[in-house]
Amino acid sequence: MSTTRFILRSLLACGLTAPLLTLPGAAQPRPPAGLQETMDIGDEPGRVSTEEVSITEGPYARQMVLFRSNEAPGTVVIHSAERFLYVVQGNGRALRYGIGVGREGFTWSGQVQVSRKAEWPDWRPPPEMLQRQPYLPRFMAGGPGNPMGARALYLGSTVFRIHGTNQPETIGQAISSGCFRLANGDIVDLYDRVPAGTKVIIRHKATL
pTM for this one? Predict the structure, then answer.
């Protein structure tokens, strides 16, 4: 694989520098020593995808569903094993979105808050990634060709985000380095519903 192709396939990395299994509260993730940076699968930087693209059919289409939870309305609950993100509505219901999640070895769980929000977010590799891969670009401007998609919700003090994608066909797949991706139309809808400070609970699978 050429260096150029390697760089291009690396651009969608969410900033995670190594596999992570559990994230306590607001703790900053720390990768195990000695692990090498890995690439996301199927990245296509420069591929243009508008913010209107949504999942409209099948199980990953945005829809209101029955959802048992003791969390307050507005809370975001992610079930990564099922590939769904829920916004609790109360009265045993939630608005459900289909998502893409971290691939094997890059799943995590915990509780954080939405620390900030961005429209058409830029992408900057974190210092730890640049130390191992100094040839990566220091900056990629946001826009329809940026793999981070139309919107991003930043999760606490971590390197993880809930963000859009220019590859809506990857929704429902375990493909990322730990971030959660939605089709651009769906992340725009979620962005408008979820203010900064919202509680986000990440679970690997549903609990009874």
Answer: 0.74
Residue spans of beta strands (DSSP E) within 75-179? 76-79, 84-90, 93-98, 101-102, 110-119, 151-155, 161-163, 174-176
DSSP string, 104-119: TT----EEEEEEEEEE
Q: Residue 96 is encoded by which pair of tokens?
A: 């459900």
Q: What is the pLDDT of residues 124-168, one digit of tens each?
A: 766 765 776 687 678 878 888 787 899 999 999 998 999 998 888
10 Å CB burial of residue 10 (0-12, 13-18, 19+) is buried
Residue 46: both structure tokens together: 């420069």
Query: 120, exposed or middle or buried, with CB in 10 Å at 0-12, 13-18, 19+?
Result: middle
- Largest Cα–Cα separation, the chain: 54
CA distance linking residue 125 with residue 136, whole number of Å: 8
At 65-121, the pLDDT tens digits run 999 999 999 999 999 999 999 999 989 999 999 999 988 877 889 999 999 999 999
